[in-house]
Backbone:
């Protein structure tokens, strides 16, 4: 029997699933009138959000300096909750930026992490991280760079060929490659009429064609944001990722990109088209060896090693562990910024913000989590590409990572003074305030080696992840490392918190905008 190409496989799965028209419910969610027909296109119609519209408009219309007192008053009166405020902020972000603004995009990616961080705080301090994100969001909406409302309602019209082929994924890819963003968005909206899950899997096929860090992580965080805003806003959330993806497509360059050739080649070579991943959990030694292969090899060798492991029945979770551990090595080994940076929050020697290690870890985590929620074919592709990207990240931006040593080294461990939980936590707090990245790593490593509970240590790191600016990546990286910690076996999981401790010490010293004001409004200590 002739094997199916990857595209043909997805097309055969999707045939017959997409309807030629959409119902009144979806039309309302998209901001359309029920009189819109399947063939009509809505151009520049306002994107609205029903009952949430007044709160969304408040987020857009109120300057950052005035928004925080209003938000706190609404929380104290019980008129709004942290969830409703963050939900409205996410929708305001989508309408204002549409995935096309750097700061706006990073703010959206921080929203679900910030909301989860709030759940880990005492009630009186829980709003701090949410208020931090509201301030950042509204500041950017009112900045000179923001051009106003940029995302409008979109009609899920039938685009040429979709009804016949039944594959919106195919149409999305064709539209992106031909740089027809509107057609791609319409195909995505049509997929949402089947289910958000269908649309996300269709979106992933085009995300997989460009492993640029923001393309990958934004897709993951846009999907994750549905937990905040609700599945009824799936089109709004997922369109942002698609619009970013369209913006970075360079047809002439990307068509010859090696990974676009490599992925189909490996799927064919290892018989992974239509393959169902296994559940064999290997020993610790296998995970360690695989992480070393991914860290030290070539991108193609790493991708091939993962493809072979999947064929052998290794569980995807175990492969994901190895990918994240390889990316984590870039955080532990990085010598830090070696030249002056125009941003005052990125000093010489710092590694927070858009550093190689933070970007690599966020990407590895995104591939890993997307593999967990996508269909089998996309899950396999995510893991292969995750390994490819982790290896490529080691070499793409320079640095002698293979020879640099991971922190903490023996001398740094010997300098740790604490011997029990309290003294180690106090010492960690002190070295963070000194911006001593090396000793933050050493104290955290010793704490973990003693088998002490992670929650008290996380509380120290969480406090600074909220109070410090973090150069747009603090909340996201906090969630990356804590979820990687939870999803990694005991023998290696503390590597992720050692990395988080280093980033925390690196970012210390520049308070987040609005943080002091928020503390004052809540009546808590800054």
Residues:
């Amino acid at each position: 029997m002739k094997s199916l190409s990857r595209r043909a496989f997805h097309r055969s799965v999707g045939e017959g699933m997409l309807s030629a028209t959409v119902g009144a419910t979806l039309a309302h969610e998209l901001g359309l009138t029920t009189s819109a027909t399947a063939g009509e296109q809505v151009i520049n119609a306002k994107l609205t959000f029903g009952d949430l519209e007044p709160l969304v408009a408040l987020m857009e219309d109120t300057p950052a300096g005035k928004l925080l007192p209003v938000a706190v008053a609404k929380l104290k009166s019980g008129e709004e909750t942290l969830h409703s405020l963050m939900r409205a902020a996410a929708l305001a972000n989508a309408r204002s930026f549409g995935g096309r603004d750097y700061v706006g995009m990073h703010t959206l990616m921080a929203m679900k992490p910030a909301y989860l961080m709030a759940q880990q705080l005492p009630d009186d301090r829980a709003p701090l991280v949410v208020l931090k994100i509201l301030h950042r969001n509204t500041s950017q909406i009112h900045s000179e760079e923001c051009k106003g409302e940029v995302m409008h309602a979109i009609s899920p019209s039938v685009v040429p060929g979709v009804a016949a082929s039944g594959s919106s994924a195919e149409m999305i890819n064709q539209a992106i490659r031909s740089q027809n963003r509107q057609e791609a968005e319409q195909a995505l909206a049509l997929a949402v009429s089947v289910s958000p899950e269908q649309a996300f899997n269709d979106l992933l096929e085009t995300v997989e064609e460009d492993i640029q860090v923001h393309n990958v992580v934004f897709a993951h965080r846009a999907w994750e944001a549905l937990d905040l805003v609700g599945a009824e806003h799936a089109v709004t959330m997922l369109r942002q990722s698609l619009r970013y993806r369209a913006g970075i497509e360079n047809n002439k360059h990307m068509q010859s990109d090696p990974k676009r050739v490599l992925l189909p080649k490996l799927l064919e070579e290892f018989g992974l088209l239509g393959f169902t991943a296994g559940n064999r959990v290997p020993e610790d030694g296998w995970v360690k060896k695989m992480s070393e292969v991914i860290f030290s090899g070539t991108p193609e060798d790493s991708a091939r090693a993962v493809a072979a492991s999947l064929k052998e029945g290794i569980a995807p979770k175990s492969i994901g562990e190895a990918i994240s551990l390889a990316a984590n090595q870039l955080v532990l080994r990085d010598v830090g910024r070696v030249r002056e940076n125009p941003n005052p929050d990125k000093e010489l020697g710092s590694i927070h913000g858009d550093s190689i290690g933070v970007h690599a870890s966020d990407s590895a985590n995104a591939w890993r989590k997307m593999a967990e929620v996508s269909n089998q074919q996309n899950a396999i592709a995510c893991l292969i590409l995750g390994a490819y990207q982790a290896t490529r990240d080691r070499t793409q931006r320079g640095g002698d990572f293979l020879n640099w040593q991971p922190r903490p080294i023996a001398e740094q461990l010997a300098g740790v003074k604490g011997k029990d939980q309290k003294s180690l936590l106090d010492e960690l707090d002190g070295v963070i305030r000194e911006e001593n990245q090396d000793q933050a790593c050493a104290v955290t490593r010793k704490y973990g080696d003693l088998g002490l509970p992670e929650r008290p240590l996380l509380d120290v790191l969480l406090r600074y992840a909220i109070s410090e600016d973090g150069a747009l990546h603090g909340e996201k990286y906090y969630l990356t490392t804590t979820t990687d910690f939870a999803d990694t076996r005991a023998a290696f999981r503390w590597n992720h918190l050692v990395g988080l401790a280093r980033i925390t010490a690196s970012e210390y010293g520049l308070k987040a905008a609005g943080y002091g004001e928020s503390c004052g409004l809540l009546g808590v200590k800054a």
Notes: The chain is about 65% helix and 0% strand. The CA atoms of residues 18 and 194 lie 6 Å apart.
